[in-house]
Amino acid sequence: MIAPQPVHPRSVRRLRRRYAWLMLALGAPALAAAVYALTLQYEILEGAAQRQLAMRTERGVTQLDAVLGRMREDLLRLGVAARAPGFIGRDVQVDKRSLAPDASGTYSLDALPSLLRDVAPQVILAGRWWSDATRRAASVERAALFAEQARLTMLRGGRFSRVTHVDVEAGEVWIYPWVASSQWLSELSAPAVEQALQDVARKAGLLDESAFQDEVRWRAQAGADRPRRITLAVPVPAAPGRRLLVADASLAALDAVEFDAASGRFWVVDGDGRVLVDHVAQAPASNAVTAAEAPPRFERERVATALVAPLAQPIGAALVAARPSAVAPWVALHAIDRAELRRDLLMGMWPHIAAGVSLLALFLAIAAWIWRQFGQPSLRLVDYLHRQAADANAPQPEVPADWAPWLHLTRDTFAAWREAAAREQRTEALKSAIVDHALAAVVTTDSQGVILEFNPAAQRMFARTREEMLGRPAGGTIVPDSVRDAYLEDLRRLRRGEEPHLIGRRVEMTARRSDGSEFPVDVLLWQTQCGEETCVTASLVDVSERRAANEEIARQREALRQAEKLAAMGSLLAG
Length: 575
Description:
The protein is α+β, with helices and mostly antiparallel strands. The protein contains 13 helices and 18 strands.
């Protein structure tokens, strides 16, 4: 019997790895589904954040357009008043005597009394056209009526800080509220009125007559470090020549816009990239978007894409929503830091992530519990089987209570096996004693005729050792050629399930010794079941001596009979 070998630790580790891979194969689909669900939810939340950012930007642009639209309407109404100021229908008291020329012949109201400067306009008339006093008086009257409308507009809306009417060809300028002509020229950096008029028209984009259309031109006027006011310019509708109306508004006019920027930063920039509005939401100082002093340099192609995209677009480290103004050539940019948004979304998803982690921990705990309840006890039971095979008194391992019946079954099974093995050993010993000490030769073969047992009497009879004969065919070794075919045919009939001729009967036949000599034997063949195979056992008795004795007796009888015949013939002859 082969002694059982202990299980190598490497095999135990391999089994544990296989179990871990099995648990991973079972848990991987669920884990992948959970990760996919969380990823899908994150994408949905991110898309909602992008949509919300775009909607907040649209609401901010809508409010901005409402303020700018009112400014445009006020300017267009003033344009109508500048074209035909006489429709007011009441007299406006003006000080025409304060209109005086300077050394260059340019008329202005620089000498206007200080008490009137809050309600009266500045009138600047340059050129030979104004040498006529009647024309100058008419211009001052129209300017006073225009100033009245401008004052009412400012009182009603409070957005314009200055309104200027310019007739480029006539060299006529009306400015409300009053400002000294030298200050006005200094602001324009122009040495003369004619050049100042050209600069005003050029900055308004209305230098050519072809550009004089009914549309408002917007421009941000730069200060020392950033734009300090907004300038609107519009041609005076249906007016002869090149007449335009220019209005200045402080950036404080845009404070009326309520930007719905809960996070990030909101900018309004003009076509040249100058910042007009810079609204910072309450956010951590570490936020790169809100900490910037100016809009980051976004790629123009990406900004152009964001202008038409329904959702906010990722541009670099920021998520940007861009919408154009429908009134002014400006663009509103609302940017939030993507890392901050990601943190906010993950914090919002934290309950779901915690639930997923909890489920994963539960799965791992169940897998460990299964290993402790089933895998580990199984290995301990196998180890107990190995130890029980070698030692009947091997101690029982510690296993869960549910495994106790199996442990007892293993112990009882081994006890029964040992008892049966002992009985079988006694039986085999008894059989071996009988066979080994039998006077007759006993030879056992399988159904193919291969020798399985060869007792000592057979060794003496055939002059062959047991080791020599085991595993060799009986036919051709101890069965001579004369009866070999009949013997093999009987075995084939036995394998086919047919009735054999020799097996089960006592017959006399010849056998062969190791030296090739043949001798007569008395043979009794019978079949036995060796497990699932049929074996044939032969009991052989050498009858050579018996046959020789019988032949000697027959010879002596024949000699006696011949002697008696001779004696009888002698008696007859003597008689």
